[in-house]
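Journal club prep — side note

Before the paper discussion, L.F. wants everyone to see what a predicted structure for a comparable chain looks like in token form. Sequence:
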Amino acid sequence: MEAMTLREILQATGGTLLGTLVDLDTPVGSVDTDSRAMTEGALFVPLVGERFDGHAYIGKSLENGAVGTLTDHELADYRPDKFYVLVPDTMLALGDLAAYYRSKFDVKIIAVTGSVGKTTCKDMTAAVLSQKFRTLKTDGNFNNNIGVPKTLFRLSREHQVAVVEMGMNHVGEIDYLTRIARPDAAIITNIGDAHIENLGSRENTLMAKAEVFHGMKEKGLAILNGDDPLLRSLDGKLNQSILWYGQNDGNDYQCKGLDENFSDHMVMETVTPHGTWQQIIPGIGRYMIYPTLAAAAVGQWLGMTQEEIAEGVLHFVNSKMRMDTVRCGDGVTVLNDTYNANPQSMRAALEVLSKFDGDYKVAVLGDMLELGDLGPALHESVGKFVVSCGIDCLVAVGTLAENIYNAAQAGGKVECYYRPTKEEAKAVLDQVIRSLLGSYLNLNAFSGQWYLFFVVCGYVLLVMLLAAVCNELRKLTIGRIEPWLTGIIAAFLSG
């Protein structure tokens, strides 16, 4: 973060100065909401939640180096070497301050939202743009009313582009975030069932996601998944121009000729309004097509070449707990997609698992939350998908996950286990893995023993053969037989 002054903080928040420190040129080098993470010269923003009140830590934050703090009420005493800014709501003040700070920079902001795949799309877009531009991106999933301001506070004069992820679970949240970030372009990945308990319907989810355009600049760009029927309904309803991406015909950015016959990557033909090229995608699963095409659309919009885009895709690395592939040895590979779950993301993970090389595939699936009355039916649909994609074993854990178990069990093709708690499920999973590893190790031990036996037998036979040859050579009386020949053989046998 580049330094701001106390004067700027008062201007951005509309706050009132408390205490005795009145030097408006006092510099602030960072903004943080965690009293434990204070650095020298920071501003502390005490947030108030259902179970905590950051105001209790104002004193600690000042001791840890903060030069000042926001507060929503007057305090009992004030340190003379620190400043205090009174605001009606510290959370809203954090957003106001982030919006002011963002306005100081001439940087392209790319917003990314959607029900599924936001983080993957954010990571892919940033990987592509980094090939040409100095790019900032959201860390992990810092995509809410705290995470987005924190991302914007990381902007500096060196940045040319920022890729900012925006999440939500209620109407109005993205409206708030987009007015802070004021994006130049926005990607919507899809409209799914995530948070449908709070939103009521997928149509309401569409309206909530489309709030991303409320704060967009007048000549902004919408980059939308053209394979999503609900997103297609926005055609002709936005003030921004639209680029469509997807697998189906009619998209501006389209995948052709997808080759999935590889263990760790895919190859597709990327068709765009500005040319076509063969793209290697460092991952498996058809879901990877969409962030790749969206990133290509952003890249070409910003003037990148095909070569730059293709190279950027190759540098893509997924965030933690999102399709992480961990090879544990002994023939065991773990696919970790445990950060969050909804029906669409769970089916995508199962599809990827089904394509992995391996003799036995185990899926461990838990509850998907915030699905409301649709929860049981949506969990049942996942169970049916488990059967259809050729998974060998299912371990379902949680209350709602029993519906996954029941549907998979009814399919009659999958070894199924259900346990209501994580502790019970862990015991079952441990048993399954031990059984599999035991069979694997026993087989290999058996094979190794026989391999060693044949090697030893072969060596013994070779020694016997050479000994017989040497003995016959010694019996020969032909003078032309060179004595050094037997010497060499004897040396070999003794060595």
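L.F.'s comment for the group: The chain has four domains: 4-95, 105-314, 324-420, 442-494. Keep this in mind when we get to the figures.
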